[in-house]
Amino acid sequence: MDYIIYIVLAVLGVIFFVAQGFTKRRTRDRKSRKFMEDYKREDRSKSNDQG
Fold it and tell me: Which residue ranges are recorded for the region named Disordered (predicted)?
């Protein structure tokens, strides 16, 4: 029963490091611009002419 606090802290630490890994991967993907490969930019001059 004396080790419950250490077990809880270990589980929280593992969850923290797993979350950090997912965050770093997402940031790296965002920096690589993979998520915007298929993005088609809207022509703003057409929408401004309709006024």
Answer: 29-51
How far apart CA 41 and CA 25 sit, in angstroms, is 26
Residue type present at position 44: R
Whole-model pTM: value is 0.47
Instruction: Report which of 50, 33, 34 is spatially closest to residue 42, judged by C-alpha positions.
Output: 50
What b/e readout covers 4-22, taking b as 16+ CB neighbours within 10 angstroms? Answer: eeeeeeeeeeeeeeeeeee
* SS3 call for 20: helix
Cβ-Cβ contacts under 8 Å for 35 (sequence gap 6 or more): 29
Neighbouring residues of 29: CB distance < 8 A, sequence distance ≥ 6: 35
